[in-house]
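Hey,
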Amino acid sequence: MVVVGFKPTGATLVSVLSACARSGCLELGEMVHEFMSERDALNLFESMKKEGIVVPNGVTFVGILSASCHADLIDVGREVFCSMKVVYGIEPKIEHYGCMVDHLGRGRGTYKRDAMETRRGCYFGIFAGI
């Protein structure tokens, strides 16, 4: 479904998960569950932004960057990473750069080059205070 661009609803995913359980397809069920968790994390972050009730912190961003990476949402991850400092005033740390290198490294073409630049920037940022 997802490979061809179809975005399943929560009800669809629950039905697929139930079918996996009934047919004994454990691996597929785990993949569906992981997809649901990643999507929920990204939806929760969007809700937090819209409501403005809770201000995200560094730990929040590690979770969101990890979720976008595993959901193969490279541009979403890049946007979230850039918003850390610009929008929320949070300086990215080694774990955030690590997520981005992993994230961009999974992509193709220019994403690979961006991953190398991010990694290089990470090293310069870490050692700037020494």
